[in-house]
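Thread title: Can someone regenerate the structure for this chain?

I was given the following input by a collaborator and told the matching structure tokens would be attached. They weren't. Posting the sequence so someone can regenerate them.
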Amino acid sequence: MKATGWSIHPSEHLKPNQISLEDEETKIARKYIINIFTDVKSEHEVGAAFCVFTNDIWTYQWSYKLIDNTVIQAEIIVLHEAVIYASHLSNHNAFKIRVDNKASIMASSNPKSTKQIERLIFKILLTNPRMKVS
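Best answer:
Regenerated them for you:
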């Protein structure tokens, strides 16, 4: 059954600075000690990955080959995996998750999304205000 309407109470929303659609590729902020970069490739098969840099040192990588998924589905899946990973870090610093697909950012920040995975991303972001997505 597909969900409809608000996934949470309408008074609950993400902080204004948690989501950004600005292209920040040229100015990776040093204030974020932990940066997570996501990417999706689709030459013959769709693959999704994210890399974690802590103090500019590569500390973790996740990748997965997807079967029967579109690129936009892969973008949402990799964002989901990245926010789950970041939510388990015990560090109290701010995290920046950098996504190169604006549609997946908009979909996952929409409290009225009808897709379960987008609602899960929204709820994780809602409960982790130190997490930023751009």
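The mean pLDDT is 79.
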